[in-house]
Design a protein that fits this description.
single chain, about 170 residues, alpha+beta, 4-stranded antiparallel beta sheet, 4 helices, about 40% helix, rod-shaped
């Protein structure tokens, strides 16, 4: 005779409890937290020139920036200026960019607003924004590829980037 007598109900109960305990443990795991959206935005692009060297929009972050003071200049304009793109609403939150242009070329891109409702949004923005910024500086336009795994953030980035370029007249 075996050490464990045949008790199917006990086995079913133990198996069920073990499964439930395993699922509960998996659900209580917390995702790895990353830098906040402000840290992501600050570290995502080249340093912004001193305010005394810029002209254009005020640093509003609500998307209602005034593009009239800097939107009429042409592509060959010399000097450094800053332009805020419109706020692009995505499924996971707003995306807004601030471009720094020198002589009609994009020299820096800073994220003013990024999705940051939860740690996953911040994590996605943390890896997508630097890649998108690098592509923007290389392409000097809004014709850039989206980042795999960050499609909504990438699309919002491109919309805000294009609106800033339109305002700058580039």
């Amino acid at each position: 005779m075996s050490a464990f007598p045949a008790r199917p109900l006990r086995r079913v109960l133990l198996s069920t409890l073990a499964t439930v305990a395993g699922v509960v443990l998996l659900l209580t795991l917390k995702p790895h937290t990353t830098a906040s959206a402000g840290d992501v935005a600050a570290g995502s692009a080249a340093p912004t020139p001193a305010p005394s060297a810029t002209s254009g929009t005020s640093g509003s972050s609500n998307g209602s920036s005034n593009g009239s003071s800097n939107g009429s200049s042409s592509k060959g304009t010399s000097g450094t200026r800053t332009v805020d793109g419109d706020t692009a609403q995505t499924r996971y939150g707003p995306v807004q960019l601030r471009l720094t242009l020198t002589g009609g070329r994009i020299t820096a891109v800073k994220a003013v607003q990024l999705p940051n409702d939860n740690p996953r949004d911040t994590e996605i923005a943390g890896f997508a924004i630097p890649q998108l910024t690098q592509e923007t500086l290389a392409a000097q336009s809004a014709k850039i590829d989206t980042v795999s795994g960050a499609t909504y953030t990438s699309e919002g980035y491109v919309r805000s980037l294009q609106s800033a370029l339109d305002k700058a007249g580039v």
